[in-house]
């Protein structure tokens, strides 16, 4: 098998410190349709802030497992739930340290900016028409993820299995180890190589459903070992989501006059519950997607 990082995926890199010109908007639109993934630079988060978060997170993960387990499974996902190599901590921003809060408020602002840009790719007037009315109540949470390397670095192992995110958008910082991969429509795994100063952004299920599949929430995963530098891998994921009681339903002009409606309207929290309760869903992300939950029967061919 060819190891996919030999053939990394070229995703657009957007400079979010300035207004996007029409060609940048076009490549953003194409990336969101085709991959649901793109990258951003000049996002205003300094290297220093990443370094502080990194060292704070390493301290937390190196606590004895009894202390981490005391946080409860809704907060702390220990090793062997999602995979033998993955542990994760959900951060409640308003309860967290100043550093996490600072990061949280920056990615919150970024999420808002990005959502408005994505709306613009769907239709010139859609930002002013839908941002306030549909996305004003969005909220975010963060996860810090710690991946230990498999014993044999010759073997490739899944650190985090194939999943889609439940969010509207997710912003990911991955360290220099790499391993994040996105699945093409044909089922090929493509690597998203880490680049210094760059954040990865992806569309989640809530936005895929709201856009009637015009935006893609792609399956992705994290692989470890095989050709990767050894050592633990660290990532930071921020999920920007609709409020729990939101009814997700694509507006008529987002669907378009001649297109079929792909989903029945659904309440956000019911989808989150579905993902938590499905058989593999001891961990809230692995396995099912919004298509399994809300696709209209004639479209359920995912
Ligand atoms: O660790 C990563 O790079 C990605 C993590 C991820 O996909 C997630 O937390 O949903
Ligand atoms: Fe993810």
UniProtKB/TrEMBL annotation:
Would you kindly state one Gene Ontology biological process term found in this protein's UniProt entry?
coumarin biosynthetic process
> Organism source for this protein?
Salvia splendens
Q: Which domain of life is it from?
A: Eukaryota
Which protein, by its recorded name, is this?
Answer: Fe2OG dioxygenase domain-containing protein
Q: Which GO terms fall under molecular function for this chain's record?
A: 2-oxoglutarate-dependent dioxygenase activity; metal ion binding
All residue ranges annotated as the Fe2OG dioxygenase domain in the record: 138-243
Per the record, a Pfam family? Answer: DIOX_N
| Swiss-Prot/TrEMBL keywords | Iron, Metal-binding, Oxidoreductase
Is this entry keyworded Oxidoreductase? yes
Family indicated by similarity: Belongs to the iron/ascorbate-dependent oxidoreductase family.
């Amino acid at each position: 098998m060819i190891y996919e990082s030999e053939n990394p995926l070229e995703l657009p890199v957007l400079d979010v410190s300035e207004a996007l010109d029409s060609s940048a908007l076009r490549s953003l639109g194409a990336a969101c349709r085709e991959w649901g993934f793109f990258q951003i630079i000049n996002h205003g988060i300094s290297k220093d802030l990443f370094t502080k978060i990194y060292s704070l997170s390493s301290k937390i993960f190196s606590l004895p497992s009894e202390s981490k387990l005391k946080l409860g499974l809704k907060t702390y996902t220990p090793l062997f739930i999602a995979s033998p190599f993955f542990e994760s901590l959900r951060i409640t921003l308003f309860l967290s340290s100043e550093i996490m809060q600072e990061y949280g408020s920056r990615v919150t602002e970024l999420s808002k900016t990005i959502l408005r840009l994505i709306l613009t790719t769907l239709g010139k007037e859609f930002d002013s028409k839908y941002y306030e009315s549909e996305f004003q109540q969005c909220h975010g949470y963060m996860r810090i993820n710690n991946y230990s390397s498999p014993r044999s670095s010759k073997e490739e192992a899944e650190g985090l299995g194939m999943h889609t995110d439940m969010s509207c958008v997710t912003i990911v910082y991955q360290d220099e180890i790499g391993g994040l991969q996105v699945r093409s429509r044909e089922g090929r795994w493509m690597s998203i190589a880490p680049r210094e100063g760059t954040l990865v952004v992806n569309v989640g299920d809530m936005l895929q459903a709201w856009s009637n599949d015009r935006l893609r929430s792609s399956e992705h995963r994290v692989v470890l070992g095989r050709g990767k530098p050894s050592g633990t891998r660290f990532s930071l994921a921020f999920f920007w989501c609709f409020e729990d009681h939101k009814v997700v339903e694509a507006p008529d002009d987002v669907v378009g006059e001649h297109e079929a409606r792909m989903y029945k309207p659904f309440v956000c929290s019911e989808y989150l519950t579905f993902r938590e309760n499905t058989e593999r869903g001891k961990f809230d992300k692995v396995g099912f997607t919004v298509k399994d939950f809300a696709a209209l029967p004639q479209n359920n061919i995912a």
